[in-house]
Amino acid sequence: MSVWQQFARGAQVLFHRRAADKDLEEEVEHFLEAAAAERIAAGESPEGAQRAARLELGRPELIRDEVRSHGWENAVFTLAGDLRYAARQLRANPGFAIVAIVTLALGVGACTAIFSAVNPILFARLPYPNSNRIMSIWEMRKGGVPIFVSFGTFHGMQERSRSFEALAVTKPWQPTITSADQPERLDGQRVSAGYFHVLSLSPRVGRDFEASDDRLRGPNTVILSDGLWRRRFAADSGIVGRQIRLDDNLYTVIGVMPASFENVLAPAAQLWAPLQYDPSLPADGREWGHHLQMIGRLRPGISEQRASSELGIILQALGQIYSKGYDSSGGVPDGMIVNSLQNDLTRGVKPALLAILGAVGFVLLIACVNVSNLLLGRGAQRRGEMAMRAALGASQGRLVRQLLTESVLLAIVGGALGIVVASLGVRLLVSLSPVDLPRVAAISIDRDVFRFALVVTGAIGIVVGAIPAFQISKGLQSGILQASRRTTGSRHWTRRALVVSEVALACVLLVGTGLLIRSLHQLFAVDPGFDGSHVLTMQIQESGRRFQDDSERLRFFRQALDAVRRVPGVTSAGLTSQLPLSGDYESYGVQFERDNGKLGEPAFRYAVTPGYLETMRIPLRRGRLLNEHDDNGMPVPVLISESFAKRKFSGEDPIGGRIRIGPDVGHEDRPWATIVGVVGDVKQESLAVSEPDAFYLPASRWPWADNVMSLVVRTEGDAAQLAPAVRNAIWSIDKDQPIVRVASMDSLLATSEAQRRFVLTLFEIFGIIALVLAAVGIYGVVSGGVTERIREIGVRAALGASPRDIVGFVVRQGMTVTGLGIALGLIGAIIASDALITLLFGIARLDVPTYAGVIVLLFGVAGISCWIPAQRAARVDPAITLRAE
Amino acid sequence: MENAGTDVIQGTLDLLILKTLSLEPMHGFGISRRVEQVSRGVFKVNPGSLLTALQRLERAGWIGSAWRQTENSRRAKFYTLTRSGRKQLELETADWQRRSSAIARLLSAES
Question: ipTM greater than 0.90, yes or no?
Answer without folding.
Answer: no
